[in-house]
Design goal:
The protein is α+β, with helices and mostly antiparallel strands. Helix content is 33%, strand content 23%. The chain folds into 4 domains: 47 residues; 167 residues, Penicillin-binding protein 2a (Domain 2) (Alpha-Beta Complex), CATH 3.90.1310.10; 337 residues, DD-peptidase/beta-lactamase superfamily (Beta-lactamase), CATH 3.40.710; 65 residues, Trypsin Inhibitor V, Chain A, CATH 3.30.10.
């Protein structure tokens, strides 16, 4: 009996212990769910009856060096549908497709689906949004998102780039600095019931906590406009396939303008071919041709191998090197070293290259920045091609001396020329001045940086004087002259490689001109390269006039005073580039009198420099611009007839 009672007590205790253990586990689990991990399980519960739709984040604004907006994000409506809340899908689809210019079948398939949420059209225009709002359809909603907008359309498109719908950067600076420009995105939250149906009253938007950083560039919007306008005109005149123009400050390396043609509108980039998006200034390479002779000359002067007044025999235009024959465009005999550059003698520079020898020449080529990237932080930059000097034969040394057998980018050529313009210092070119976070704090700033000193001030000055002779009477670049300013430069015409034969093409060339102004104290370096011009194919005939027109507008805009000692331009010099040339044939005085009515002078009062240029381009008037700021005076007066041969001008002044 005692044993039986003892066994019963043991069983009772065991069962009690089991109850206590199970109860403790239940209490612990309840504590774990409701106290320790309450936040996590609350989120899981929310996710079961909420749907989150990400919204496009706000990107930072891109400004030019004067604070002018080049790219910004604006709020626009995006339209969505909740199909389960739409009663008559067919009728709604018909109305919406008409309002949004979308195919009826596409809209109908979306709003008759079994989904709880679908986008109909994102980032619509204000007129489209208004049309859909007027319909007052149930199950159709609107949410504000940020859309990237480029207020200047094509100006600077290749540099700035563009974004997609998300909006991730796809080209240009928008791509390169995507992480800095892209802000934190918000999201749309919709409530849904146990069956996944949307609850119209349970929808709200969570905004991103911050926008993206803003960016200030070294580009000048007005100089960019001038460069693009004149490059486009030069392409049309020469019937070129494409073109590039660069304007930079030689003392700092700041890129003031970087233009490419054909151009595109980043607001509608999908309407253009991908080939038109490419920034040719950093992505394309070409043989520099005779523009490369100035770097050979700089190296030879620096090494003390030649003197500017020294003479060299140019073999009457025919010279055999390494089993190949080199020709000059004229049969030159004895030429001074300075005249070798002025007349662009291939034979003269081939002989100088032989004096310099391969290793030294290669060293100077590399030190001028060729064969390596400039690290300008633009996507797609290529280093060009410079072969190892151990692979050069005698004819290779001669060919590279006059710019064949080597490939460069337009930016490399402009930056290297700036080293000659500023006294021998290779400056790192850059286009982003600073980055500012959403709170106004500057997080990144780039200052002028000297990469290395390539040549001495003396050698640089001697080469500058030789380049000035190129634009003087008898030189190959007289059409680059700018009245009032003494300019220097070098023409180049290089044959392109035929991809079929692997040799040089008989009719395809790159015509170029690179130079600076004023010669005594260069403030601007300008490069112009035209791809495959027709009929007139030489750089001195097609690229030099574009240089002249850009420089003649850019120098006064930059407040660079004319040279007092500069002689008047000869009759064959081009019209100053601050004058937009009329593409229509001029009307003779007699004919004008017969017609009895010439064009009328517009009212330019209060217009900016750029606005005046736009009116000039639209009307075809050849107008002289004086000063900077806004127009305060003009001749003739507004509304007066402009007769043939009459000087017409406007004077601009700052508000102060």
């Amino acid at each position: 009996m005692d044993d039986q009672a003892k066994w019963i007590r043991i069983r009772i205790r065991f069962i009690g212990f089991c109850f206590i253990a199970v109860f403790s586990l239940i209490v612990f689990r309840a504590f774990d769910l409701q106290v320790r991990n309450q936040e996590e399980w609350s989120k899981r519960a929310e996710r079961q009856h909420q749907k989150t739709i990400p919204l496009t984040p706000q990107r930072g604004t891109i400004y030019d060096r004067n604070g002018e907006v080049l790219s910004l994000s604006i709020e626009v409506d995006s339209i969505f549908a909740e199909p389960r809340n739409i009663t008559d899908g067919s009728q709604a689809a018909k109305q919406i497709s008409a309002a949004l210019s979308l195919p009826y079948s596409v809209v109908r398939s979306k709003i008759t689906s079994d989904k709880s949420f679908v986008w109909l059209k994102r980032q619509v225009t204000p007129s489209e949004s208004e049309e859909v709002r007027k319909l007052g359809l149930q199950g159709i909603g609107f949410i504000q998102e940020h859309r990237r907008f480029y207020p200047n359309s094509e100006i600077g498109a290749h540099v700035i780039g563009f974004t997609g719908l998300d909006p991730r950067g796809l080209e240009g600076l928008e791509l390169e600095y995507d992480a800095q420009l892209l802000g934190q995105g918000g999201y749309l939250v919709t409530e849904r019931d146990a069956l996944g149906r949307s609850l119209g009253s349970g929808r709200y938007t969570v905004r991103g906590q911050r926008g993206g950083s803003s960016m200030y560039l070294t580009l000048d919007k007005n100089l960019q406009y001038i460069a693009e306008k004149e490059l486009k005109l030069g392409m049309r005149e020469s019937r070129s396939r494409a073109g590039t123009a660069i304007v930079l400050d030689p003392d700092s390396g700041r890129i003031l303008a970087m233009a490419n043609q054909p151009n595109f509108n980043p607001n509608a980039f999908f309407n253009f071919r991908p080939a038109q998006w490419r920034n040719r200034a950093v992505c394309d390479t070409f043989e520099p041709g005779s523009t490369f002779k100035i770097f050979l000359m700089a190296a030879a002067l620096e090494e003390g191998l030649v003197r500017p007044d020294q003479k060299i025999y140019c073999e009457k235009g025919v010279y055999r090197v390494g089993g190949q024959t080199i020709h000059d465009h004229r049969a030159y005999g004895d030429l001074k070293i300075s005249e070798v550059i002025k007349f662009s003698s291939n034979i003269g520079v081939a002989k100088i290259g032989k004096l310099l020898e391969r290793e030294k020449y290669f060293r100077y080529i590399s030190e001028f920045g060729f064969g390596g990237k400039t690290d300008i932080h633009l996507p797609g930059e290529v280093p060009g091609l410079v072969r190892n000097p151990a692979q050069w034969f005698e004819i290779d040394l001669a060919a590279i001396s006059f710019g064949q057998g080597i490939s460069v980018t337009a930016l490399q050529l402009a930056a290297a020329t700036a080293a000659i313009a500023n006294g021998g210092y290779l400056m790192a070119p850059y286009i982003v001045q600073s980055i500012v976070d959403p709170y106004g704090q500057e997080t990144e700033r780039r200052e002028p940086k000297i990469v290395r000193q390539v040549i001495s001030e003396k050698s640089a000055r001697q080469v500058r004087e030789m380049m000035a002779m190129v634009t003087e009477e008898g030189g190959t670049g007289t059409l680059a002259r700018v009245p009032g300013y003494r300019v220097g430069g070098k023409t180049g015409t290089a044959q392109k490689i035929d991809p079929v034969t692997g040799g040089y093409s008989a009719d395809k060339r790159v015509a170029s001109f690179v130079g600076f102004a004023p010669v005594d104290d260069p403030k601007l370096v300008i490069l112009v390269a035209l791809d495959e011009p027709e009929e007139k194919i030489y750089g001195g005939l097609v690229a030099a006039p574009v240089f002249s027109r850009i420089a003649a507008q850019a120098l006064p805009y930059m407040n660079v005073l004319p040279d007092r000692t500069e002689r008047a331009a000869p009759p064959e010099a081009p019209v100053p580039s601050i004058q937009v040339r009329d593409s229509r044939p001029p009307v003779a005085p007699a004919a004008a009198e017969k017609k009895g009515a010439g064009p009328r002078m517009p009212d330019f009062t209060g217009m900016s420099y750029r606005q005046v240029l736009q009116v000039m381009e639209r009307t075809g008037l050849n107008l002289k611009l004086r000063g900077n700021g806004r127009v305060v005076e003009q001749h003739p007066a507004s509304g007066r007839e402009v007769t043939y041969g009459t000087e017409i001008w406007v004077r601009l002044a700052s508000p102060s």
